[in-house]
Amino acid sequence: MKKYSIEVLEILSRIVEVEASDAKEAIEKVRQEYRKCEIVLDDSDYKVTEISVKDEKSR
């Protein structure tokens, strides 16, 4: 028998609109809101699940 390490990756995504003078400022505003937990992704933001082999070992 072999032993496998399997990664389960779930991707969540949300589009957030923000007013700013440029893209850099907009990203920073959203980053700060996210860090303050003002933006919290949940199951309604679910996009996809990927499952893949990360390592295979012989016993």
H/E topology pattern: EHE
Structural class: alpha+beta
What shape does the CA trace take? elongated
Q: How do the strands line up in the largest sheet?
A: 1-2
Number of helices: 1
End-to-end Cα distance, whole Å, is 6 Å
Q: Major beta sheet, specifics?
A: 2 strands, antiparallel
What fraction of residues sit in β-strands? 35-45%
The number of distinct β-strands equals: 2
Task: List the uncertain runs.
Answer: none
Structure notes:
The protein has 59 residues and is α+β, with helices and mostly antiparallel strands. Helices cover 22% and strands 41% of the residues. Strands 1-2 form a two-stranded antiparallel ribbon.
Kindly summarize this structure in a few lines.
This protein has 1 helix and 2 strands. It is α+β, with helices and mostly antiparallel strands. The N and C termini lie close together (6 Å).
